[in-house]
Specification:
Layout (H helix, E strand, L loop, with lengths): L2 E10 L2 E5 L4 E6 L8 E2 L6 E3 L2 H37 L13 H26 L2 E2 L5 E6 L6 E2 L4 E7 L2 E8 L1 H4 L17 E8 L2 E16 L6 E8 L18 E7 L7 E4 L8 E5 L5 E5 L1 E5 L3 E6 L6 E3 L25 E3 L1 E2 L6
Antiparallel strand pairs: 1-10, 1-14, 2-9, 3-5, 3-8, 4-7, 5-6, 7-9, 10-13, 11-12, 11-14, 12-13, 15-19, 15-22, 16-17, 16-20, 18-19, 20-21
Length: 352
């Protein structure tokens, strides 16, 4: 299979700016409410003083009880009014005013309003405890204990650690060698594999990812299509991954699994000259300058569709002035050889 190269920065799939929905003094923060702190879904990260909101709940409960009592009184009055109407021997249905229907409707409406007020008071009380519905990390902390916050105050920024994404720009020539996922592809095995690499603490680290979707439109300025690769459990905090930690913001190189192409050989990129030629050692160990057909060039590899065959030896030693017909000593043929060569392989990794 061909490989398509790209690059991008790691970012969270889900990121949240924590905003206060109620006002009050911050009375407590979690020990994990610090930049880099890990928390579980539903953990209380920050507590706003709930005293006034607890009082509001009690007032709303009292108001509801009072209005329910008034409704019960009106219902009793309406029942008694109907009995009085019948006891007087009057025929037909009593009018609405006699049955106190307007007063009864008003009392019922007051109960509904009181129930709504109680629900709002309870919601406001719940909103004094700040939490998020996912396992995650805090990336920014913007308030602390003792600070007064108003509705709309930004408290911090958090992100989920279940998944990381990398936006990978792809040119139109890249797209010709890729089978990109469609909106109807729901199974992970349908997604192309992606190998990610980055330099971390002086070492090259590698991560396995999947290309899960494209953004669907070409960028208006660069005319590239962005594909999105996903790494599950990038921090290894959820027990779903055994890979090295992949931190948000890391810039990675991506090698995307491309389409299978027949009759293509792969060579290191540096053996290809600017005039699309390579140096080949023929069966007599003589130098040949061979013109090749390039199917695709990547930063580290080149895929050739013609000019060399699998099993031939391509010179990898730098030669300043190669002269066709020059006799060559190939490393492995002689202990004194000063020329190295690579055996041509097809795109499946086999030689002839």
């Amino acid at each position: 299979n061909l490989v398509v190269s790209s690059q991008g920065a790691v970012r969270p799939r889900t990121e949240t700016t924590l905003v206060s929905e109620v006002g009050g003094k911050v009375v407590a923060v979690s020990e994990n409410f610090v930049a880099g702190g890990f928390f579980r879904a539903g953990d209380v990260l920050l507590q706003i003083d709930p005293s006034d909101y607890e009082t509001a709940v009690k007032r709303a409960q009292a108001a509801l009880a009072s209005r329910q009592a008034k409704l019960a009184d009106e219902q009793a009055r309406a029942t008694q009014a109907e009995k009085d109407w019948r006891n007087l021997g009057r025929q037909g249905n009593p009018p609405d005013l006699v049955l106190r229907k307007p007063q009864l409707a008003d009392a019922q409406a007051n109960v509904l309003a009181a129930e709504a007020d109680l629900e709002k008071a309870r919601r406001d009380l719940e909103r004094t405890a700040i939490s998020v519905p996912y396992d995650g990390l805090l990336s920014e902390k913007r308030v602390d204990v003792g600070q007064f916050v108003s509705p709309g105050t930004q408290l911090g920024v958090s992100f989920a650690v279940d998944s990381a994404e990398i936006r990978l720009p792809l040119s139109s020539s890249d797209l010709a060698f890729l089978d990109l996922p469609r909106a109807t592809d729901k199974q992970p095995e349908d997604y192309p594999e992606v190998s990610l690499q980055a330099e971390v603490a002086g070492m090259t680290k590698t991560w396995a990812a999947r290309l899960i979707r494209t953004e669907g439109v070409l960028d208006a300025n660069s005319r590239v299509l962005y594909a999105v690769a996903e790494v599950r459990d990038p921090y290894g905090l959820l027990g779903e991954s055994t890979q090295d930690e992949l931190r948000m913001g890391t810039f990675v190189r991506a090698a995307i699994e491309g389409r299978f192409v027949d009759n293509v050989v792969v060579l290191p990129r540096f053996v290809l000259s600017n005039d699309n030629t390579v140096l080949v050692a023929n069966d007599e160990r003589e130098l040949e300058v061979r013109e090749v057909q390039v199917a695709r060039a990547e930063p580290r590899e080149v895929y050739l569709s013609g000019g060399v065959k699998a099993g031939e030896l391509v010179i990898t030693t730098n030669m300043d002035a190669p002269i066709p017909g020059t006799r060559l000593l190939i490393s492995g043929d002689s202990a004194t050889a000063d020329t190295t060569a690579a055996t041509v392989q097809d795109a499946n990794g086999s030689g002839s």
